[in-house]
Amino acid sequence: MSTENRHNVEIILKRLIFALGFDTDQQLADWLGVGNKVLSAWKARNSSKAIAIISSKCRELDLNWVLTGEGEPKPNKFIQFADEIIKTSVKVDQLEYDAQKKARSLTAGAKMRMGAILGAVEASAEDDQEEITTQLWNTFTEIMSKKKTKPHHS
User: Fold this and answer.
1) Same domain, 93 and 65
2) Residues 101, 131: one domain?
3) CA distance 13 to 51
4) For residue 78, what are the CA distances in angstroms to 6, 50, 87, 98, 141?
5) What separation in angstroms does the CA of 19 have from each of 37, 39, 101, 113?
6) Cα(70)–Cα(119) distance, rounded to whole angstroms?
7) Which residues of 9-38 are buried (b: 16+ CB within 10 A; e: fewer)?
8) Structurally, how many domains does the chain consist of?
9) In this structure, are residues 121 and 92 in contact, taking their beta carbons and an 8 Å threshold?
């Protein structure tokens, strides 16, 4: 593809309309947060400002494809998967921190059970994190309810 076509704003806007499933320039303008007249001006001037705004909005599309037409419209699935892993990891870390904080006041047997579950959370990057989190929560609430029902000895 020639350099002339690589940065032709009109072609780039057409790629966006196609990839996003829009039918009109107005739909694209709304998505970009600009007026339809702005799109017309970008096309007429082959505006570099258009490229900057488009670049900032194209999280769900492959920016290289949008700008050059090379590659595929949708981004690499690995990047999306990596984003999900990071989000899940942050949630698991927070749950682990909260559970460790609560576990400090539990009995030795309860601490061993919680430790085993926490170990499973850390070791199961490929397992369903939601199921493990539910198991962790259920065990924790079970332990806490037993702790509350035990009579205190003087």
Assistant:
1) no
2) yes
3) 10
4) 25, 28, 14, 30, 36
5) 21, 17, 47, 50
6) 44
7) bebbbebbbebeeeeeeeebbeebebeeeb
8) 2
9) yes
DSSP 151: P
Q: Is residue 55 part of a domain?
A: yes
Q: What does pTM read for this prediction? A: 0.44
How far apart are the C-alpha atoms of 36 and 27, rounded to whole Å? 9
Residue-wise pLDDT for 37-93, tens only, equals 998 999 998 888 888 888 888 777 878 888 888 877 775 555 566 667 777 777 877
> Whole domain around residue 99: which residue ranges?
78-149
The single residue listed with the structure tokens 């007429």 is 44
Q: Taking a C-beta distance cutoff of 8 angstroms, is the pair 41, 47 a contact?
A: yes
Q: Which of 40, 75, 110 is the last residue of a domain?
A: 75
Asked which of 29, 51, 75 is the last residue of a domain, the reply is 75
Q: How far apart are CA 122 and CA 139, in angstroms?
A: 17
CA distance 63 to 56: 9
Helices 25-32 and 9-20: crossing angle in degrees, nearest 10, is 90
Question: Are 91 and 66 members of one domain?
Answer: no
- Determine what percent of the chain falls in helix, strand and coil, rounding each to the nearest 5: 75, 0, 25
